[in-house]
From TrEMBL:
Residues annotated as domain Glycosyl transferase family: 181-338
UniProt xrefs under InterPro entries: Glyco_trans_1, Glyco_trans_4-like_N
Pfam families the record matches: Glyco_trans_4_4, Glycos_transf_1
Origin superkingdom: Bacteria
Organism: Aliidongia dinghuensis
The protein, known as: Glycosyltransferase WbuB
Location of the Glycosyltransferase subfamily 4-like N-terminal domain: 2-159
GO molecular function: glycosyltransferase activity
């Protein structure tokens, strides 16, 4: 988004927490912040999160005084209503990107001690922004439930940088450097967690119905990696599994080009998975869960095979069908590639939408000022 805004000729100043110098391969929950959270009572840790927003606001206000921007584009985070505080002080237009309903998410998974404070900061951030930009229509329903008017909610899904994956590469050539020539490659990109369900794919490799040439290529790393490797070893399919570990983003397309079947085994009900757009742009046959946020991008048997989450065997059956039917893989892959252009799901288009919203908001502000002066 930042690169696309700059590409359209706009100046962008990024204000964010200082980046860690720890290498990605070493940053598996280490560092003083996770350690402090583990040691402190949950309520104390959450108070520190909220207290950090005061420091963040001071930095943001200093940046505002130096840069004098026309607008603020902010990515929402819980306990950090800094953008709307700045807007209250300066009348700066605020566009708030929302990737998840963090109160609901943390209540369900990590737990919240200060639920009332968390809910207040979320409502304050969402209701006070000029526009709230959820990444899916499913997520927009969460925003609506917090009292944000429909006219201030604009869904902008994630997208793809077209230059990142300019043209799909077919045939055996992408597989040669990886030692996967002659294999039917099942692929997954991302940070591997237990809830992703990759263990089901490893089980499938050992199933009698799985073709002997099927290989699983996992591009990334994560806390589930050790369990996946142990499972493959126990099932006798370790030689049919490759895990790359962390890679620079620029290296990912070369591995994606080796996929025959791209996997999205699971997704939260409100997410706009970034990997889906890379799969689409690469022109790969996709297997993904049949749920409303996924159907905003994918259509069953048109540009993907969607499986019923209520049917335990459905995920594996969809994969095996694609393994057996190369013509179906090609048809779905071609339609997947066309989807990016059909839906215009690029970061450049997202940036143009953001600029149009800002123009609209600034025109409204000018009109209101003129009306006030006329009176």
């Amino acid at each position: 988004m930042i690169a696309s805004l700059r590409g359209l000729g706009h100046e962008v100043l990024v204000v964010a927490p200082r980046q860690s110098r720890v290498e990605p391969s070493e940053s598996k929950g280490t560092g003083w912040v996770p350690w402090l959270r583990q040691k402190l009572p949950r309520a104390c840790a959450e108070l520190l999160e909220f207290g950090y927003s005061l420091y963040a606001f001071a930095r943001l206000y200093a940046a505002y005084r130096r840069f004098r921007p026309d607008a603020l584009y902010e990515r929402y985070n819980l306990y950090t209503p800094t953008g709307v505080w700045l807007a209250a002080l300066t009348r700066l237009p605020v566009l708030l990107e929302v990737n998840s309903p963090m109160v609901a998410e943390r209540s369900e998974h990590g737990g919240l001690a200060l639920t009332a404070l968390a809910d207040w900061t979320e409502r304050l951030s969402w209701r006070s922004a000029d526009y709230v930009l959820p990444v899916t229509r499913a997520l927009a329903r969460h925003v609506q439930a917090k009292g944000v008017p429909d006219e201030r909610i604009v869904v902008i899904p994630n997208g793809i940088n077209l230059s990142h994956i300019p043209e799909p590469v077919e045939g055996a050539r992408p597989k040669l450097p990886l030692g996967l020539e002659g294999k039917t490659v099942l692929g997954f990109i991302g940070f591997m967690r237990e809830w992703h369900g990759l263990d089901r794919v490893v089980e499938l490799l050992a199933h009698p119905a799985a073709p002997a040439d099927v290989h699983l290529l996992l591009v990334g790393d994560g806390p589930a990696r050790a369990a996946i490797e142990a499972q493959a070893q126990a099932l006798g399919v370790a030689d049919r599994l490759t895990i790359t570990g962390f890679l620079p983003h620029g290296d990912v397309p070369a591995y994606l080009a080796a996929f025959d079947i791209a996997l999205q085994p699971a997704a939260t009900e409100y997410a706009s998975p970034l990997k889906l757009f890379e799969y689409l742009q690469a022109g790969r046959a996709i297997v993904a869960p049949d749920q409303s946020n996924i159907r905003e991008i994918l259509t069953h048997d048109r540009n993907a095979l969607l499986f019923d989450l209520a049917e335990p065997a459905a995920f594996g059956e969809a994969i095996l069908r694609l393994c057996r039917e190369p013509a179906l893989r090609e048809r779905l892959g071609n339609a997947a590639r066309a989807t990016i252009a059909e839906l215009n799901r690029t970061w450049d288009n997202n940036a143009r939408q953001v600029v149009a919203l800002l123009d609209q908001r600034m025109e409204q502000g000018n009109a209101a000022a003129e009306t006030s002066l006329g009176r």
